Structures are given as C-alpha cells and as structure tokens.
C-alpha cells in the first residue's frame, strides 16, 4: 500500500476526538489508574508526552485489533525486562498484565524466560519488579 | 520454597537424559530445523553452548508448562526487537512464532508495538527481520 | 496542564489531515527522499508504521517549534550513535543533518563526543556510518 | 592524514599543562560546580578517572571549536536519555545545558524526541531527570 | 562435533545431583554468602530461577576449568559495568572478585577501562558500585 | 587525592610525546597491526579519534600497570560481547587477547560466560565473531 498524497488519503489516521477516546479507553482498561497517574504527573512540564501516550501509544498502537491485550502486555513485560533500564514502566505493565487477565504465573514465566534472552541479571531485576507489584496487590504466584 | 541442602533436594532438576529429551523435543517443535542448525554449527568451537541451548534454554525454560509456546515466542520476538542487537536470533524466533501457530499479523503487531517501548528504529529493524523470514517462507500478512 | 475529559479537550491533537500534511512536509524537509523511501518500503507488510512515522514522528514530534531542525538532527545522530544498534536509521539522520544545514564538521564532532558518553566503539561505528553518507554525497569534512 | 611516527608528530596532543587548563575551564563553564564535585568525589578510589574527565573529556573533546557548547550539551542529553542507564550523568548534563544557554524548552524537546528514537520509557525517565534538575534550580519550562 | 541422538549421548550434562553439588560449591567459593542470599530471596516467587543460578550459572558455566575464577569475575565485572543496568549484580560480582583473590586495584582497573569501551558514565557508575562494596568490607585500593 | 590547581599539578598527565610513545607501543603489543589499521583508516575524516585511541585508550588507560594485558583483553572481550553492538571492535580484541597470550580456550570461555550475564544471543554472536578471527588465524580451540 502506497502512502497517497494529502488530497486523497482514505487511510488517514482517525481524527483527534476518535484517537483520544480510543486511547483513554485503552489506557484505563489496561493500566487501571496507573497510566492515568503517569499522564497526569507530566503536568506542566511535558503535557505533550502525556497526550502522545494516550493518543498514539494507546489510541493508535495498543488498541489495534490484531493482537490480544494479554499478548500485548506480556510482550511489553518481556521487552522492558530485557532492556533493564525502565523499572517504573515495567512495574506499570506487570500491573497491566494482571489487569487484562494474565495470571501471575504467566508474568513470572515471561520474566524467567528473559534469563535466556537477555541474561540472568535482567531476569533477577524483572522478578524484583514483579515482587513489588504483586506484594502491593496481595497477589500470589500459583501453578498456572 | 527454600533451596534445600544437597543431601535432601527433592526438587532437583531432571537428570541429564530427561533434560536432553525434553529440550530436543521443544527445540524441534518451536524452531523446526533452524534451532538444530544453530546448535550443530557450534561444532568444534563451542559445543557446550549448543548443549546448554538444548538442555537449559529449551529443556529447562522453554518447555515449562506455565506459558503457551505462542506467548513464549511473541515475548521473545518483542525482547529481541527491543534489544536490537540480535538479528540472527530474532529471525529464528520470528520463524518459531510462525511454527507454533502465531499468525504473521500477531508477529507484526508485536514488532510494531516496540515502536512505543524501544523506539521506531528498533521497530523498523524488527520489520526488516520479519520481512526476510516471511519472504523466505512465502508468508503474507493478513488482517488477523 | 491536566488532560481534560474528551468532551472538553481544547488541546487535542490536530485532526488527521493537518498531522499528515505537517508530517509530510517535515519528512521531506529533513530527510529529503530517504524518509519517503523508508515509508514506502514498509509497503504491504507494515504500512501503519509508515503512517506513524509521517503523522507522529514527523507531524507531532519533529515539526514542533521549540527546537531547531539542526539541533533535532544532531540530537538524533548522538542518540543513534550511542545506541549503536540502528545503523540504517543513523545514516538517514546523518543525511538529515546535512539537509537541514548542519556542517559535516558538526556531525563528526557530535559522533566524536560519543566516545566519552557511550565509548570508543560506538564512536568508531558512528564515524563509519558518516563515512558512508559523506562519500555517497561527495561531502568533505572541513574545519567548521 | 596518516599518523606519523613519534619522531615527527606535528599533530601531537597539547602538553599536560595545556590540556589540564583547557579542561578545567570547560568543566567549569559547562557544568558549573557539579562536574567539580564529580571529579573530587572520585577521591582516593579512582582519581585517575577524575583526571581523564578533566584532561580528555573536557580538555580534548568538549572544548573543541567545531560545535557549540549548546549543541554539545543537547547531544549529550539526547544520548544519555536514549541509553537510559546513566541518570546521575543525565542530570549533570541537563544542568550543563542550562548553564550554557539552552532553554528549558529546548532541553524538554530533546528528551521528548527520544520517545521516537529510543521509546516512551526512555523519554519518561528523561523527563523525570529534568524535573529533578529544574525543581532544584527553580526553573520553569516556557514556550521557547 | 554433532549433537548425537538421546540414546547415544556420551556428552550429556552431569546428572542433577552432580550439577547441584558443583554449583553450590562454586556459588559459595565465588560469592561467599551473597549468592546464597540472592537464591534464597527468590523464595516463593521464582525458586526455579534460584535453581538455575546454582545448577546452570554456577554448576555448568562458572565451575568450568578453562578459565580461572579471577578472570571469570573480572570479565563479569567488565560486562555488568558496560551494560550499566544491573547494579545489584555488579555489586555481588565486585565482591566475588575480591573473594577469589582479585585485588581492589585490579577491580578498579577493569571498571576504569570501561570508560573506553562503554563510556565515562558507565565507568563512573561502576566506581560507585565498587565504592559501596569496598566501604562495606573496609577494603582500600592500593597500587597493585 | 584532590585535583590541584594548574600551577601546582604534580599529578599531571604525561606530556604529549610520552603519551604518544606509550600508546603506540601498547597499541602494537596488544593489537598487532589491527589497531594501526583502525587508526589509519580514520584518515581524513576523524584523525582526532585515531589520536585519542593511541594517546588516551592505549597510552593512558591500557598501558597502566595495575592489570595484566591478558586480563584487560578478556575484560574487553566480555564487555563487547555483552554490548552486542560492536562486532568490528570485538573481533579486534579477540585477536588482541590471542596476541597477549590468552588461549583460544580462555577467550571462548569468557564469551560462553556471557550467556549467563547478557543472554544466549549475545554469546552466540560473540562465538560467531571468535570463529571469524580464529579461522583467519588458523587457530583451534583446545582444552586449555
């Protein structure tokens, strides 16, 4: 598919209201109130980054139909564990994985798997992040 | 569960034959012949690394029951896309994702999502890896 | 500034046509035809990523008034040199830096500086990328 | 230009006194007292690292004429935001960017741009670093 | 060397008891009680990761004869300093390097060398980790 | 040790001739002709980076007495394997490790160990780099 000239772009992104509404809904469904807190905290300093999170990250990307919320969150937990330099965001998405129906077991399994792909330190630090989130929520890790 | 002293370790890892058998089966189921090729190519130089791949990465980690093959492979594709420095392995696991039943659409969606978590360059390079694998397999990306 | 509810969002992103137009203009101004080629090459596989590049990366982010094109491109060259895993994109943005008026000297200086912040290998590989771009364009590095 | 044998090296680095003087001046001009504190804190453990910071990082690299202090600091802020694993140094250089005349707006714009090149988590964590520095200095982010 | 079928695998890994015993001994010899604490802390959440540390990381990898403990620990300190995102593990291995007979001087030299290969920020943060460990142990850095 | 004012700097770096001589000698001893080739290839584009490699990386850092050449090269091989984004430099230093007396076995062991600290992909790609160097030199990996 080619990108068509401006005057004839049937595949243009949704208009602003639609992206905002879609994004707000996805942000809430996936991150509960954690994502809202992140966006609001950007307050006076960088409100645009908060808008991009809602409109682009959640409105344009996360809300797309081709991949379930559960798979999206597990993929995000994997990536942030592997990167090892984004602890706050990893905690938000471990919580998000729980919110969308991933079991604590599934979340732990994804992090454990990163011992193979990005090394044991990354997996240890990912488990530490999961512990913080699970303890705050009173969640226990079962067999499934 | 505490790690018990050696003389009383009921939870010890499987014995060598079991781990090898489990690993070989998982390696084949997930990577087809690609993983075998990687292990064999380690030849005279580092056969131990090949054994660890079979016994540990696949036998101990990948074959665990708490997370489906499909979710494991999507998580691995996400992590390797985010890391951006493991193209050969990313291609193996994009192929692995197809082998275990992920659709090309799901694989592309995971890579696209990395535009948010590790940046557009990582997503672009991940799409490039997926293109190589899909073209080699005559696979097309559909709606689902 | 708080993010207001949908029904009263005076700060909503531009509508689709505006973002597309802004993005296309910035993409051309900064990357010449290189960015167009990247977007077009996403073809059937991931046209959405191409749209996000135009609408978000260039329309929403790059075209913002608070930082000059020259400073934006030098910052991008620095970041991609430091990351060391995005050679194709680094080459596009070294070209982009030339397009927006940065001198070859300025570009080389930014890359050299990364020897301090991300190490000599990253700087060496960045210089290699700059060499490819400069040779293709017949550009020489002067004193300024 | 070839590197000539020792006996005929017209392009030798400045002698020790010159590099030290140049470095001390640049360190002060760019980092205020923050850089001095970093160097001094290396105290008994690694004074050589402090000397290399002054003589090499600032004397040989940062003080070079081909790129303005402002562009150097914005490039450094970009790279350290993208790397995401050097928070203390990122804060020093956000402060350095202010010291050499970059506006808070320009600094925020560079960090926001990293949402595209190294992902939203890196940009969020960069904004967090900028917040710490700006609050400590009573700085507000304006339009320019 | 090809990986032979299960029924004829003379090169199979040691059986479980051997790997566990080898691993426990290496863990203790190298990390003192620090490694034991890491393994135990994985408690209810991820005991498998603790077992993999003992059996694989120490039993299969670290205990191998072809490289001395001292060289193994210096290599690990170098890698974790360069990665810059694994501070807890870097501290464990700085301690491990001391345990196996590396001098504080050798450890500092490895970290300083990372200023060249992964940049000054990584070296500064590595020195900070070393300071924590040395102070806790009352260790001073001498000439050798 | 405090950094003293310019007028009384007994701990100043060596003067230019000394650093250059020390650096050239270390460059040759450790990298054979490979390092020379890297420095020379910086030619017209970035001769300063070549000078910094000789004077700083080798003259000031690598030639320091507190750590043997063998340990320095093994540490560098470990770090560059872990980083995974500096293949050309990793090859130079695998060669350097051979030049200073490390056995092929020791080099392979360091790379294998990175499977634990930075993941299997990094180790696989490091083995690939070692294979290139060993084959070019007709080197075989023995038991020690």
* Rg over C-alpha atoms of chain A, rounded to the nearest angstrom: 17 Å
Which spans of chain A have pLDDT < 50 for at least 5 consecutive residues? 1-11
Tally of helical runs of chain A: 7
SSE sequence of chain A, one letter per element: HHHHHHH
Overall pLDDT score of chain A:
92
Biggest sheet statistics of chain A: none
Q: Categorize the overall geometry of chain A.
A: globular
Oligomeric state of the chains in view: homohexamer
- In terms of structural class, how would the helical and strand content of chain A be classed? mainly alpha
Using a beta-carbon cutoff below 8 angstroms, give the protein chain pair with the largest interface and the number of residues from each chain: E-F, 36 and 37 residues
CATH class designation of the largest domain in chain A: Mainly Alpha
**Strand percentage of chain A:** under 5%
- CATH names the topology of the largest domain in chain A as AhpD-like
Domain module count of chain A? 2
Helix share, percent of chain A:
55-70%
Q: What's the count of strands of chain A?
A: 0
The H-level CATH homologous superfamily of the largest domain in chain A, spelled out, is AhpD-like
CATH architecture of the largest domain in chain A: Up-down Bundle
